[in-house]
Amino acid sequence: MRTITLHPSRIGCPSIPGTMKGMMLSIPGVSDVKIRYEDRSLDVTFDETMVSPEEIIKKIGQETGLGLEIGEPGGAKPGTAADTCPM
Question: What is the pLDDT of residue 68?
Answer without folding.
Answer: 80
